[in-house]
Prior knowledge:
By secondary structure, this protein is α+β, with helices and mostly antiparallel strands.
Amino acid sequence: xxxxxxxxxxxxxxxxxxxxxxxxxxxxxxxxxxxxxxxxxxxxxxxxxxxxxxxxxxxxxxxxxxxxxxxxxxxxxxxxxxxxxxxxxxxxxxxxxxxxxxxxxxxxxxxxxxxxxxxxxxxxxxxxxxxxxxxxxxxxxxxxxxxxxxxxxxxxxxxxxxxxxxxxxxxxxxxxxxxxxxxxxxxxxxxxxxxxxxxxxxxxxxxxxxxxxxxxxxxxxxxxxxxxxxxxxxxxxxxxxxxxxxxxxxxxxxxxxxxxxxxxxxxxxxxxxxxxxxxxxxxxxxxxxxxxxxxxxxxxxxxxxxxxxxxxxxxxxxxxxxxxxxxxxxxxxxxxxxxxxxxxxxxxxxxxxxxxxxxxxxxxxxxxxxxxxxxxxxxxxxxxxxxxxxxxxxxxxxxxxxxxxxxxxxxxxxxxxxx
Length: 419
């Protein structure tokens, strides 16, 4: 019994500190293995202090949002109804026939379909879905999509699973966060600048569509570019531009794009045999700077292998949308101007402290006024975190965001498939 209890205690310590998934999990958390020294120190500390909960609590993430989520748990648990166990709907699906069968079963469980009805045709199913969509204030189209499936999966039992998954995600974060950093929680569609554990700036963002998702990453702002040019990534060229060029080479001029060799020589798109290309082209396509440029007025660069960045946009009307998963992968920032002056302010303070030169703010204002392209080096590197959290504690209340990239669904299989 001593051995079993000790093993259970050490397992609890590992789960609290590093999470419950193994190194080969979807998170690819290769540093999740804890050595003998950790367990030995942990046991000795427990014996010394004599307080199990005190020692265990020290292993948990110190991230403020982690504790805010925990703080919102008691009220949820007090009011949750775990007696209602519904069939979980996996979406997107591989087999439409199997999915519809599971969907009908799920609708029967909540008595949207009477148990006496043996057969449901597509027209009847559409009418039932419309009724549900109206009741739940969803988009009314009589079709089963991600929005409807998310709503049907949103039982208290499933919410509890999502809370557990999100708590573990904080265990993949660094033990200590920087003093200042940019935090983009993709499912929330918001960017925050955290300064001394306080939100110094907040902005709506537009992120990547599910087919061109924004990656999870950690980096730091290296420079800012006023009135940037956009060199279109090969993935967009292959999926969108190349098919259009095969139909009409005049597509580039109509969109305001220019065609160049990789040495910078301009090429006439009518002189190219586009039909022979399928996986890419030996040219680069560039959209010149200006108000119509897809990157807008300002671009924030940071090193990463995905060729993504923060930037303004020429489609600012999209920020009013509730669903803002609409880009090719980069993150569009509504309050880009506030972010510029925040970053510039850090550099100016740092220059005063170190007695070094920095770029005057009048220069940036002048470049913006005259619509000039300039690269502004950032000396005070501001860390950037793109993360994925679908549950949060805000003012003591639980808030859930849509699982836009189906990461909760994948994690759910890894966590609970054998439970």
